[in-house]
Design goal:
Blueprint lengths: L16 H10 L3 H14 L3 E3 L10 E3 L3 H16 L4 H9 L12 H4 L7 H6 L2 H9 L5 H10 L5 H12 L11 H8 L6 H11 L12 H10 L8 H10 L1 H5 L3 H8 L3 H12 L21 E6 L2 E6 L7 E3 L1 H5 L7 H38 L1 H6 L9 H8 L3 H8 L3 E4 L2 E4 L7 E3 L5 E3 H13 L9 H10 L6 H10 L5 H4 L4
Parallel strand pairs: 3-6
Antiparallel strand pairs: 1-5, 2-4, 3-4, 6-7, 8-9
Helix pairs in contact: 1-18, 8-9, 9-11, 10-11, 12-13, 13-16, 18-20, 20-21, 23-24
């Protein structure tokens, strides 16, 4: 067999542990970053929180002054190249710690695992943190069983009641019929009358309307629990019980003719029906609060939009000078290796945090420069923007921009927005310009808010009105944008004035 030599050319992506760490910190949200920093402080004795000093000015950038931005960037770059503190510099001169680690390696491949890693340190409390942050409140079934325990029922009725409560979904609707419940028990002692009696009892529980098999029964349960002297109660019961299809289709003329009601009477009756809750289960167990901590602040000072990092998103950390000074006094090689390994890890962790803040500032500043019209005038002035535009402006890859804009929030005078909110596709205009999808959604919302309730605007009519403003959008696109705004179609928006 004849041997031959072949040469192949290929590309392979390699990353150092420092780069891997920087990418991982970059894509973390604010809450996750705080946990990561706390884990690093707990596992690495050379890291410590800086004591509060005279409050330094937060890192900021002027979106309207390119020269100031370049100057700030050069300062941050020089600060990054400088040692973190005097102790770190002294130790760097006395040691042989390399500036870079081998590519595609881990900390444990080069340095001994002297302390649990940040991820390992945090894993012990992951379950607790997840339960604390995402812990669910009392469910609808728990709420119903609490009321059931206050009722005096026989053992057999309690079994039936538990089965009925289990068959109620999160919206408060009964998902099975009483006949199906009887068949499921497979017990001759349980009859349909007994199931209906227990079901009627549960339908009197809080929230009003729970236990209804459909929307009609849910509304009837709520109406029957109202005071008999409620105005237009009889008319509302008649409409819901006999004319539910016409009510769903908003066929008001037919309802007025069949119920012999005048327009003002029908209007008051519909107002009473609209006070009812079609999904009573949503009132229980859905009170979880989500907290948003902004990463950057945007404010207008002296006619210029200023971008500042939130100084409270993460504690300022530094290298412990006392532990770093112990390196030269340590007697054994194991002590020196321990200090050396933790010092290197601490240095790169601080650099990764600095890199994260600098990248976040660059991206946020460019976003503000592009979307200055939004900050001034609102959603209608939003410009089309994609990740590629910001990537070219800051000389970064689109994947980096995607990481830095995910789960990062900006506090503006108009509210708190995720950075991804400022990115949107575009639609061409008659003048050759472009209009963002966010601006089109704002225009649709504005047109619908100003429409005549008796004759709501159809999607085709909205298309014509936008075309008159020079924005060419297909009717299907209008329907898609309207649905994204949770706005019903024109036939469902029709109502009596």
């Amino acid at each position: 067999m004849k041997q031959s030599l072949q040469l192949k050319v290929g590309q392979q992506l390699t990353m150092t542990p420092q780069l891997q760490q920087a990418i991982r910190l970059l894509q973390l949200s604010t809450l996750d970053l705080q946990q990561e920093i706390q884990s690093a402080l707990d596992s690495n004795p050379l890291l410590e929180v800086e004591e509060d000093s005279d409050s330094p000015e937060p890192q900021s950038s002027n979106s309207q002054s390119e020269s100031n931005a370049n100057e700030a960037e050069s300062k941050t770059t020089s600060a990054e190249e400088a040692p973190s503190n005097d102790a770190d510099s002294e130790w760097a001169e006395r040691s042989d710690i390399p500036e870079d680690l081998p590519v595609d390696s881990q900390w444990e491949d080069v340095y001994q695992s002297s302390a649990p890693s940040s991820s390992a340190a945090g894993s012990a409390d992951d379950d607790y943190n997840n339960d604390y942050r995402h812990g669910s409140s009392e469910s609808l079934q728990d709420h119903l069983r609490w009321q059931l325990n206050l009722s005096r029922l026989s053992e057999l009725d309690r079994i039936v009641a538990d089965a009925i409560i289990d068959a109620i979904d999160e919206k408060g609707r009964l998902t099975v019929s009483p006949e199906e419940l009887v068949d499921a028990f497979d017990d001759d002692n349980i009859e349909i009358e007994e199931v209906n009696a227990v079901l009627h009892l549960i339908q009197q529980f809080d929230p009003p309307g729970v236990g209804g098999q459909d929307l009609q029964e849910c509304l009837l349960i709520q109406l029957r629990q109202l005071s008999p002297d409620t105005p237009y109660l009889a008319e509302a019961l008649q409409i819901v019980e006999q004319h539910m299809p016409q009510l769903g289709n908003r066929d008001y003329n037919q309802i007025m003719r069949r119920c012999r009601l005048k327009e003002d009477q029908l209007r008051d009756t519909l107002a009473l029906i609209q006070t009812l809750n079609p999904t009573p289960g949503d009132c229980v167990g859905n009170d979880e609060t989500e907290y948003v901590v902004p990463d950057v602040f945007v404010s207008k000072k002296e006619g210029r939009w200023l971008v500042e990092l939130n100084p409270d998103i993460a504690p300022k950390i530094q290298i412990n000078s006392h532990y770093a000074s112990l390196a030269k006094d340590s007697g054994t090689s194991s002590d020196k290796d321990y200090i050396r390994d933790n010092l290197q890890e601490a240095r790169w962790f601080i650099k990764s945090l600095q890199s994260r803040n600098e990248t976040l500032m660059k991206v946020a500043t460019k976003i503000v420069e592009y979307q200055r019209g939004f900050l001034e005038y609102g959603d209608e002035a939003m410009k089309p923007l994609v990740l590629h535009d910001i990537a070219d402006a800051v000389s970064m890859h689109e994947s980096t921009i995607s990481r830095v804009t995910t789960q990062k929030y900006m506090h503006t005078p108009r509210g708190i927005y995720e950075l991804k909110y400022f990115f949107s596709s575009h639609v061409s205009t008659d003048t050759g310009g472009e209009c963002s999808s966010t601006a089109i959604r704002a225009l649709i919302k504005k047109l619908i808010a100003a429409e005549n309730p008796k004759k709501p605007l159809s999607d085709s009519k909205i298309t014509q009105l936008l075309a008159e403003q020079g924005i060419k959008v297909a009717r299907r696109t209008i329907a898609k944008y309207r649905e994204s705004l949770v706005i019903p179609p024109s036939n469902e928006r029709k109502r009596l004035v």
